[in-house]
Amino acid sequence: MFIDIPMTSAALGTAVKVETLDGEQEVSIKAGSSSGTVVHLKGLGITRLRGGGRGDLHVHVEIATPSKLDKAQEELLKTLAKARGEKLDDVKIHRSGDRHESSVFSRFKDAFSR
């Protein structure tokens, strides 16, 4: 299951009601969530093929970034960026695997290149 939430809701946190096999269920989206976040609803998925109860329902969060802003909205975002000490051209580029933790391949490469 995929849900789209506004960027403001992602930044501030929100609760979203989703339809499950058991009816409506509230899903909490933590403040600071990013696109690709997956929330697991334990035991609310479909029945496992070989018995053993039900699986988890995975809710994939996608952040909807506005593509068109009016002048007031644009100024508000610029003010927020300034308050956070962000520069509009401050972009960080990461190679795959470098962002959060190194991949197995990266660790082998590092070990053998010493």
TrEMBL record:
Domain Chaperone DnaJ C-terminal span(s) in chain numbering: 3-66
Any Pfam family the entry gives: DnaJ_C
Upper lineage: unclassified sequences, metagenomes, ecological metagenomes
Organism, as annotated: freshwater metagenome
Recorded GO CC terms: cytoplasm
Name of the molecule in the record: Unannotated protein
BP term (GO), one: protein refolding
MF GO annotations: unfolded protein binding
